[in-house]
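Before we proceed, please read the two lines closing this message. Tell me what the token row says about the fold.
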Amino acid sequence: MAFRASVLTLYPEMFPGHLGFSLAGRALERGQWSLDTVQIRDFATDRHRTVDDTPAGGGAGMVLKADILARAIDSASENDTRPRLLMSPRGRPLTQERVRELAAGDGVIIVCGRFEGVDQRVIEARGLQEVSIGDYVLSGGEPAALIVLDAIIRILPGVMGNDLSGLHESFEGGLLEHPHYTRPQEWEGREIPAILTSGNHGAIDKWRHQEAVRLTRERRPDLLEKAGAAPGKSGSNFGKHDA
């Protein structure tokens, strides 16, 4: 069964966006995944198609109304077991592990918030899982939804020309990815590391692992700490690799 993505948004014209190009676009054309958008405003009942109101208790901004958003969610997910995600800066950070979990399922339903936020009652009543793509705030959930879908679609079976490509990237195995090089051998006085052209694949694997550990320790020591390998900790498995 093809992976099905449903996006609830006030701006359906923003989709598929960049997902209509390159690998994701070709996979969409082949039917390896599908996308449908739901216009939240279609479920408003007044003549102005109002979807938001002022925050209870006062404050700046506007809040998406629970009743309208609930009707939109129900229309997209009747008898549907796909996870319901709400793009939100207060959500749990998206990880590659979570991406793989989502890619292994039948699809996702993604709600794109706008304004100041979403009425908490609909989050609870409809089981929305809040997901964040980083510690910053966007004008709406649409760009974040595209990023989530991009991360998922590229690792669906058959989307990448070589499925092994997805197994040797940053965050797979808890490390950042090692450096890459290609021809020419020398460029502006800089050489490709000799080990990579040695033909010794065991030594190459060891070098790549060591470089991945080095970069992770320098740039994302938190990843090593999560894996029980504090930066600079002697005896850490992250510094070892059998050729």
